[in-house]
Amino acid sequence: MLRKFERQILKGIREGEPNAFETVINEHYKSVFGFLAYLCRDTGAAEDLTQDTFAAAWANIGNYKKQASIKTWLHRIAYNKFLDSERKSKKYSAIETEFKEEPSAEKTAFNPLDIAAKDEYSRILYREMQKLKPDEYTVIVLHYIQNFSYKEIGNVLKEPVGTIKWRTNQALNKLREVLLAGHNHE
After folding, report:
1. What is the pLDDT, as a whole number, of residue 37?
2. What is the full DSSP assignment across the chain?
3. What does the pLDDT read at residue 99?
4. Given a cut of 90, is residue 177 above it in pLDDT?
5. Using CA atoms, how far apart are residues 65 and 67, in angstroms rounded to an integer?
6. Is the predicted pLDDT of residue 56 greater than 80, yes or no?
7. Of the ranges 6-10, 64-68, 89-93, 153-157, which one carries the lowest mean pLDDT score?
8. pTM greater than the 0.85 cutoff
9. What is the pLDDT of residue 51?
10. Which domain, by its residues, includes 122?
11. Which pLDDT value is given to residue 77?
């Protein structure tokens, strides 16, 4: 269900108001960029994909069906841009291996995740999250970092809510086991 604010913005876009789409960008840029930064683990790539996301949204605003919020719609576009990028760079088939690698010093120098991980537990949690399967990692990022509901995640990933809940539960159980095992060894 669209919020009143979103309906007004869409009306402005349809009527050709010059600042209407700029309002969409200002409202959602940080969230879309953050989501892509988590997926890409590279702020430069995330920046490029964020730009591509908003360009695609602008080009396809006439196709927006209003079945989901603008935020969910933009995150769906962003996720598709990420997947396309992975396919194009031929990393898609090896993404699971890439997720298991330790980030290089070059990748982490300006990585917002490392800046946010100020205490040891956060760094451990982030490291262990990287060991999740890509689909599990994505639902954790969307639900716990981007604060999406299960329904919104289902819309972004085009999967049933039950599947999203199950995948989130599986990912949390894996994280819990690894973190408890690590804590017991100390």
Report:
1. 92
2. ---HHHHHHHHHHHTT-TTHHHHHHHHHHHHHHHHHHHHHS-HHHHHHHHHHHHHHHHHTGGG--SSS-HHHHHHHHHHHHHHHHHHHTT-GGGHHHHHHSPPPHHHHTT-HHHHH--SHHHHHHHHHHTTS-HHHHHHHIIIIIS---HHHHHHHHT--HHHHHHHHHHHHHHHHHHHHHHHHT-
3. 46
4. no
5. 5
6. yes
7. 89-93
8. no
9. 92
10. 4-184
11. 93
Q: CA 37 from chain center: how many Å? A: 8
Q: What's the rounded mean pLDDT across residues 42-55?
A: 91
Distance of alpha carbon 91 from alpha carbon 78, whole angstroms: 17
Note whether 40 and 108 are within 8 A (CB): no
Measured distance CA(77)–CA(72) in Å, rounded: 9
Q: Check pLDDT > 80 for residue 50.
A: yes
Residue 46 identity: A
d(CA 150, CA 168): 9
Tokens of 4: 């009143």
Measure Cα distances from 161 to 52, 123, 156, 171 in Å. Answer: 27, 30, 11, 15
Query: 38: closest CA among 148, 154, 120?
Result: 148
Give the separation between CA 38 and CA 130, rounded to whole angstroms: 10
CATH number of the structural domain spanning residue 91: 1.20.140.160
Total number of domains constituting the chain: 1
